[in-house]
Protein 1
Amino acid sequence: MDPRPIGVFDSGFGGLTVARALIDLLPKEALVYVGDTGRYPYGSKPLDDVSSYAHEITRWLIEEHDVKMVVVACNTASAAALDDLQSTYDRPIVGVIDHGVSSLLKVSRTRNVGVIGTVGTIGSGAYQTEVGKADGDARLVCAACPGFVEFVERGELASDQVRVLAQRLLSPIVDAKVDALLLGCTHYPFLARTISEVVGRDVVLVSSADETAFGVRTMLIENDTLREGEPVPPLFLSSGDVEEFERIGSMLLGPELKNVNRWTAPGSDQATSDQTE
Ligand code: DGL
């Protein structure tokens, strides 16, 4: 048994899908969630920058909250930094990529599968490597979908514009006739209807949030580190506008998202000016 919290982070709101799955599956666990909305989006940034953000947040979660585990609830950050984080810190660090891939391969009958994600995620080759490791015979087609995240942030989930963009970006997936498609970006589940209309309703859409939560539970059980006792409210922090985080976040996660605190990246100009005030 281990009463310490689990740290979860994402570039912003998208990782709340993973936080929701964790709250539902492991209601007794304490969560500390950092949404790095002040430096969002990660998907179009150089992977080295994303990796250094991931290190800053992970270090802070360990030093300030003594978290027993860190969940990197962001595909781009998992692609940029997961291996490095795992070899740097003395805590279990869980990403979303391997869990998403195992669920994708589980639902596919033909082993002809697709993954979509941000430019950073797809360009990193992380999904290509993970699918190759899990099933060397699987045929994988990947497509980066720049613009999808921005549509979700604007709440435009099924407009004509997003459909036209989806038709263009998803044409390699349609041409490859996959039978299962992994939504390899935290925001894409919100576009599931439009994506499904474009790729065809018989293609199974897979999101990594639930599978990641199951992976976390398995690890906590194996390490004998589940939390016992009364549930405690999750703690949410944002490096951007906290009121906006609370407003949008509560629509995505539900009523547990309240009393958002401000998070300042330890090395940032803001942190320096906070210290000198
Ligand atoms: N959280 C990012 C991901 O899953 C999407 C949003 C962003 O680009 O920061 O890749």
Protein 2
Amino acid sequence: MDSTPYRDIPVDALEADQAAAELAALAAEIAGHDAAYHQHDAPVISDAAYDALRRRNAAIEDRFPELKRDDSPSDRVGAAPATGFRKVRHALPMLSLGNAFDEADVTEFLARIRRFLNLEPDAALAILAEPKIDGLSASLRYEEGVLALAATRGDGSEGEDVTANVRTIADIPQRLPADAPRVLEVRGEVYMTRQDFRALNERREAAGEPVFANPRNSAAGSLRQLDPTVTAGRPLRFFGYSWGEVSAPFAETQSDARRKLDAWGFQLNEPAALCDDVASLMAHYGRIMAERADLAYEIDGVVYKVDRLDWQQRLGFVSRAPRWAVAHKFPAEQAQTRLNRIFIQVGRTGALTPVADLEPVTVGGVVVSRATLHNEDEIRRKDVREGDTVLIQRAGDVIPQVLGIVAERRPPDSVEFAYPDHCPECGSLAIREEGEVVRRCTGGLICPAQAVERLRHFVSRDAFDIEGLGDKHIRAFHAEGLVKGPADIFRLEERDGEVAPPMAEREGWGERSAANLFRAIADRRRVPLDRFIYALGIRQIGQATARLLARHYGSLPDWRSAMVAAADRAGEAYADLTGIDQIGPSVADDLIGFFAEPHNLSVMEALEDVLTVEDVVDQTVGDSPLAGKTIVFTGGLESMSRPEAKAMAETLGAKVAGSVSKKTDFVVVGADAGSKATKARDLGLTVLSEADWLAMIGRTG
Ligand code: IVH
């Protein structure tokens, strides 16, 4: 690429001004090639030609050291990957666990399983209970008995390839015995013992390096090292407790599987016990809690799992958590500290949330300096004031809370907290509607806090998951007008340098971090419909609802036109929307409200210009008679519970609706069916008996 008139002049013959022009041109060209190669995996010149450009650049710098540029390619490593780890899609999603906090929750967990499986009250239900380790989960894929791939959990569908690092963990077998399945993904937790964590921190402190907050962070930080030799120097360990893809079943029960994992060389977390009712689960829980302080590693609860694997299979999962397992968490840890100030945060829907700014205090191994005060009624009820000593609590991943005040320690001059009736960010009136606990800013589009929060939500992990675009950057980009709406994020690279200094020249940024950010953004130009819906940040539309909507409507154009049409509450589209199981009038109102706002429509249009939103592809076998069909169950079934029938229909690609309409394909009529059956017949729909249903799903009654 001869992009300057001096390219053919030998370095020795260059004049200073020619050399300066050449260096500028080379810097731009090389950066362009780096981007093409690393960010888009699409090099436009040969490696030899690229090397020649770099050599010429270096030779000119040698001769004219004073002309060396701040963005000189010689200061950048050309060959290192732009982002740390390769992303890998999990063959089977890595699930998380639902929580139980007390005996009532555990009782309900067992009852739900019994209902789902239609078990007789006296039928045995064995549950395996084992400690819940506080580390980070990883999936280890063995092929032909050899460790082939190790990945972090990531968002559950896609994690990071940490194979090289995992190979350095002594607890993890590199090879499995011959009786292991040909393909086996062992899942478990990478963790660090308390003692190793303390020793590591002492070494870091002595070396003047920042220390880790707790063993969990320390394990995570050690596993996610770009240089595996660093990981090798960190005392990481691994417990196996579950599995993903397997080429052949290898056990009939969870306890059986544990024995196999043990035999194949994996460490298991003890003490485990097979329990058969709430009382025995609670007893084992009590025992583990009593031993907790003596364990070498940190645990944060006990996991209960249905022992029979065929039952696990039938139970399946909802959203991202299995129905057959639950985490019984230990009680939250508490501490006292001084509340320095109460400030108000404005969320993406305009909700004002009071937050306590605390004197930092360690609670359960984590330093806490903020806690939520929920809402204005809570502040009044607890009479929390600035300067008070407060009792705070932290449980698991939830935001720490202020439980109450320590009355005797209240300073004599304290005054009641005056809750604002204007938005602290934009000054608009903040109002509280009848029956609502939340006060909301009425500033809408003019409120910068709402805009920033919407953007933060948009790039967050469960939405677009754009790495490297932190809160600080979003706030700055928004304040400067660089990113006004979500679509602007996807224009950052092409507009780089137009209105503000180029990304790489901003404070705290360099070539490498700018390139990484642009690459992370480019990687997200294709997005599944459910993530797109969730990212819009519509009130009440969480991940689970976004998935329901995506599955029901299938594509962005279909969803959008249906939402616009649903504004007619008497029409077909509204009936169809509220017919989706779990979507009621209140959620429907929020969706309709969102689409009634012209600004939201233009945000979506702008996004469509820069993105590809993927249609939902049916993951079910194409020959399932239920794929893409809408089914309604009414009346009682004998052979399976309603939840199991519903789960089965969904697994086979059907949408389960709560009410009958012209769009319903099948109505399964059980015993004592009422008006829905009559309506189905009136509409001339296909009505199935329980036997027809069983035949359809390939089961005999
Ligand atoms: S079973 C299908 N067993 O806790 C669910 N998980 O909060 C498979 N965890 O994502 C998980 N100890 O990373 C299981 N003994 C244990 C565990 C355990 C820790 C983690 C796991 C999971 C998270 C959910």
